[in-house]
Here is the input.
Amino acid sequence: MSTNYDIIVIGAGISGASVAYFLKKKGVGKVLMVDRGATPASSNTGKSCAIVRTFYTLPLMARLAKTAVDMFVALPDELGQTGGFHQTGFVQLVPSDWVETTKEITNMQTSVGIETKFVDPAQYEQRFPWMNPDGIGAVVYEPQSGWADPVQTTEAYIEGFQAAGGDVRFRMPCRQLLRDGDRVTGVELEDGPVSAGAVINASGPWAKYLAEFSGMELPMTSMREQNAVWEVRPDRPMPTTPFSSAIEAVYMREVAERRWLIGRGFPKKYYEVDPNNFKESADNDYVIGSYDRMLTRVPPLQGATMVDSYAALYDVTPDWMPFVGPRAGIEGYYDFSGGGGHMFKTAPAIARELADWVVDGEAADDFRQLSHDRVAADNLFHQSFGGNRV
Ligand SMILES: Cc1cc2nc3c(=O)[nH]c(=O)nc-3n(C[C@H](O)[C@H](O)[C@H](O)COP(=O)(O)OP(=O)(O)OC[C@H]3O[C@@H](n4cnc5c(N)ncnc54)[C@H](O)[C@@H]3O)c2cc1C
Here is the structure.
């Protein structure tokens, strides 16, 4: 083998970019990040809605999301760039039959330091002039949350990684992980083998194939997720915070002047697809269906024009929580994939704790549950609302 690295990271989406950065920050000597794409975030990260919010039912997710918000706020100090983060706040609309569980969730959020509050219905009209209040059980507002530019954030981590001496190779597919018995010893890149003390598999939906080709089970499916961007008529009152409505199962965020992105939330039909062969344009019935649902909640959308639409992939594990960290019985290998619809925001927070785990061999008890070992131990995560909501 020609080159030897301490650690090789596969994937230059937000997961690979942020863990590569934190490994260098912890003083790891030679780190290589490879991606078969030509630029940072060229795959699912680049298509992410990149909403950064903390309304999660699992305490670990709430803790990681809170850490993530703090990290986005501190990004200019950390990396000298904002990552395109807009701290607009985030609004969650819930139906009446969710209100009691939502109180439990906001109490749990508060216990991990998240600022969140129920909005007094008397303030709906003044604070949310865009909103049809029919059928709303409660509105929860998180002032610290917001959204980011997923490409800018990924670029910021990669530039930080390179500034610290990390090597990056784009247009460089990893063909397989090299294994010697129970140890992963490097990777076979398109232009030849490279040895490494450890490999981090942050290749999104394709992580499954790299792992399984090397004899490691990675139970993950790829689900097609569609979004459409709509240009709204001038001078309409529209939401300036991202929001999600659990009543219509839709979400929305501003992307540019007069333009808002609309997506469908859980529950909805998920389409499992082959990540190497799926339809990357959106379906007409999906685009119109999500618009019609949103229109009932946001009447000022009336007359909007669709200006863009596309489909990308969620990498989905059996409990919708990512696989992160080492596995029992395998040396020199770390998972970092399976973030579903949530790992843009949490990836940097996960990456920082994963770097500690890799370098120091230590991780917080709650974080250890993210290991793929939870499958064999029958210790999957259990959430309050089911499906993609975690
Ligand atoms: C439409 C959509 C909306 C979303 N909205 C949100 C949101 O609002 N908030 C949120 O927090 N999360 C959101 N998510 C989820 C979030 O975007 C993802 O969890 C996150 O971007 C995953 O990043 P990643 O780096 O793990 O994977 P990816 O972005 O998929 O990156 C994997 C990289 O690995 C590379 N790769 C794959 N195989 C190989 C190989 N063999 N050799 C070399 N390179 C390889 C790929 O080229 C790719 O660049 C959304 C996702 C989608 C699809």
Summary: Residues 99 and 137 are 6 Å apart (CA to CA). The pocket of flavin-adenine dinucleotide is lined by residues 10-16, 34-37, 42-45, 47-51, 173-174, 202-204, 206, 210, 225, 227, 312-314, 337, 339, 341-345 (CB under 6 Å). The first helix runs from residue 14 to 25.
